[in-house]
Each structure stands twice: as C-alpha cells, then as structure tokens.
Amino acid sequence: MQHEAKVMRLTELAAYQEGAVVSKTLLSKLTGTVTLFAFDVDQGLSEHTAPFDAMVQILDGEADITVGGQPFHLQQGEMIIMPAQVPHALHAVKPFKMLLTMIRS
C-alpha cells in the first residue's frame, strides 16, 4: 500500500468508545507496525508477550502498564519500551490514547 504525505493529528484518528478499546493500524510493513489505540477508562489488555520489541507512547490520558511484573504509571507525553518475550499488560486509569510501534527484527 502506497502512502501519501499529509499532516494528521494522531489524537483525532481514533475516537474513544464507551467500554471499548479502539485500534487503527497506521502502518504495516514486514519490518514492523504502527498502531493507534484509544482505551476507555478501566479497559486494557491482559498480560501477554510479543515476539518483538514494542514502544508505547501515551498521547492522551493515563495508563498503568506492567512490564515483567514491574508497574509503571504513564501520562501524556511519556513512553516505555516493552522488550520482546517479556510479559506486559495495560490498564486505562483514565481514558487514554497510545501509539504502539512494534519492530520485527
């Protein structure tokens, strides 16, 4: 898929939905993906692992993220790297939006 150059406001590309997690894939290549998520309050992703390193950037709101059993509280403008094969989970303290970048190498 060919992409055109254009300016977009990330926080407007995915809307919050009551009681739900919304995701929108922005880029998907063999080498990795970039996905935008919008989590309503108290929504999240249960503990899981990924085969590749992933970086989460908080664009709006607040989230509790656990990586390898260690809890982290992230707010707008903060980011965290989740290493490959390390269990991690996410929980929306407030509605939050995040950009997930996964590198497949």
From TrEMBL:
InterPro entries assigned: Cupin_2, RmlC-like_jellyroll, RmlC_Cupin_sf
Protein name: Cupin domain-containing protein
One Pfam family matching this protein: Cupin_2
Domain Cupin type-2: 46-100
Domain of life: Bacteria
